[in-house]
Amino acid sequence: MANEACPPESDEWVGLLEDTRDPDEGWSLLVCRYICKACSLISTIFPMVCEGLFDEARRHYHSLLEQVSALEHECLRWMAQAAPEELAPSSHTHFFWNIWRSARLKLHNLFFMLANLVLHTPMHRISQSAEIFDSFMLEATKDRCLAIVATAAQETIDSIPVSLGGRSPEFATATYASWFEGMSQISPLSHVYTTRTVPKHLRNTARLALLAIGKERGILQAFKTRPGAVQYAAEAAVGISLDDTMENVTEVT
Fold first, then answer.
1. In a domain, 142, yes or no
2. How far apart are CA 217 and CA 224, in angstroms?
3. Is residue 239 part of a domain?
4. Which domain of life is it from (predicted)?
5. DSSP-assigned states of every residue in 151-175
6. Which H helix or E strand runs over 13?
7. Do residues 120 and 233 lie in contact, with contact meaning Cβ atoms separated by under 8 Å?
8. DSSP-based helix, strand, coil % in the chain, nearest 5
9. Which of 27, 131, 183, 208 has the lowest CB atom count within 10 Å?
10. Which segments of 160-216 does DSSP mark as H helices, in order?
């Protein structure tokens, strides 16, 4: 998932799909809608936390928080009202669950850093007329983001099939289907492995699963994931461990 907004036509495309959808496509279309909105938010937040754009972060913080909260509420409300068969485990829903978890994890990881950036803005960068932020509210938002990141990461780990060392049922048996299942796991597991706000034991589990995908399924793309490729502003990364001892998965034996 790139740090860019989806094409401007995306909402129209999803709208057309919703108008003609089958009864069992509600969840996949909700995920599409979530990703479109999440990518738009991510594309706005990402340069702020990378470049240390304090003024922009403080000016847009409340609006971004409102949009992130509304997006989260919309998705969770739909899930609470959905018929059981719409969310029943299958290879189809399994795939879309992990896409949603990855988007959710990335969005709330970045919002954690945005709250950090606002909280730790140097005093000389704050004008006398600037809004005063409540540090307790910012810390509460950070805690909430970390909880969501941990939940999304744990659910992704729980989706690892038995053949790759996990506990999830196998949805693929034929060789080609098994290969596709391995491919579909690489992106969500890579998000878990490379995101430093994810609890370390979950990151390590994701790393081992990526290694298994590379070795046992023969999918070399799984070996190419490594953390630390993006540099964030120091203020955005406060409280995030940077002494990472987990190297590229190809170095695991």
1. yes
2. 15
3. no
4. Eukaryota
5. HHHHHHHHTSBGGGTS-BPP---SH
6. helix 10-19
7. no
8. 70, 0, 30
9. 131
10. 175-194, 200-216
In a domain, 75, yes or no: yes
Task: Return d(Cα 78, Cα 31) in angstroms, integer.
Answer: 11
Rg (CA), the chain: 19
Domain count, the chain: 1
Reading the block at residue 248, the tokens are 């590229």
Residue with tokens 């403080």: 58
Distance between CA atoms of residues 22 and 1, nearest Å: 27
Q: pLDDT (tens digit, 9 = 90+) per residue, 45-72?
A: 999 999 999 999 999 999 999 999 999 9
Report the candidate in 238, 239, 185, 245 with the shortest Cα–Cα distance to residue 212: 185
Task: Give how far the C-alpha of residue 222 lies from the chain's centroid of Cα atoms, to the nearest Å.
Answer: 18
Alpha helices in 82-120 (DSSP H): 91-119
Give tens-digit pLDDT for 172-218. Answer: 555 545 666 677 788 899 999 999 999 999 999 999 988 888 876 66
pTM for the full model?
0.86
CB atoms within 10 A of CB 141: 23
Q: What are phi and psi of 221, to 5 degrees?
A: -55, -30
- The answer as to whether 31 is a domain residue is yes
Asked if residue 106 has pLDDT above 60, the reply is: yes
Range of the domain at 223: 8-122+133-231
Query: Rounded CA gap, 129 and 176, in Å?
Result: 62
Phi–psi pair at 67, nearest 5 degrees: -70, -40
pLDDT of residue 222: 66
